[in-house]
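Example record

One chain of 302 residues, shown exactly as stored in the release files.
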Amino acid sequence: MTTTTKQSSVLRVGLVQQAITSNNKHENWQASAQKIKALVEDGCQCILLQELHSTLYFCQNEDVSNFDLAEPIPGEATAFFGALAEQLQIVLICSLFEKRASGLYHNTAVVFDKKTDMAGMYRKMHIPDDPGFYEKFYFTPGDLGFQPIETSVGKLGVLVCWDQWYPEAARLMAMNGADILFYPTAIGWDRNDTMEERKRQQDAWETIQRAHAVANSVPVVVANRVGYEVSPDTNGEGIDFWGHSFITGPQGELLALASDTQEQLLMADIDLSRTEDIKRIWPYFRDRRIDAYDGLNNRWGK
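Predicted structure tokens for this chain:
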């Protein structure tokens, strides 16, 4: 009797956890490019950048002059990062402040697949509005739905920051065929929070995203900002972005975890062939009661 050995399909993914200290886009792009190149030298084929990596996190206050930071897609940023993806022959996921039209702006992720032209884009669907995170002032909710982006390394389910708290978003991406979920992120602590509250918040943030991996049997890649960014308001506290970027496998197992306080390049090998095996062992999609979920379309209750 002969036996056959299944060939694994291993993808080395990487992410950049970066501290941003100015609104000089070109300097920030060059710094990101150097970090991307370092990941490529270590064999990374697919790389994620953090949310709104071109500038400081400008949503700490409401200021119409910040709309000047936005740019069209395609534009200068997509030309820069697209050329980088083509030069390095990688899949690259970027996060940009998109000016779609006069008075119409989005928080948008774009994906390049080894060439300058975009493979696809995703506009952030869930928009928060909290002290220090006044995103509703700047961003129109996305209108592209939860559609994975087809690339040479698989179908990438790209979501953005606040989207990461919603199991519906992860589920719909997975149902539409996403092989991996990616979350570019900008989250941190209020300086008035106690150490106990900080730990609770960070633990909840990590747990919910690892749960998306478990519930959908897909790996998850999360790139967060890191470092303190001062508030543009003189009486503002600023934000300590907590880093803690991570990569999980399809059972939520941590494959790599970054520092809470330092810039870091993170990478992990993901065996994409495991997804099918895990879905056979834990057949959540088989057992979903789609006949009983109509209530999910309600805002609350019946």
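Notes: The radius of gyration is 19 Å.
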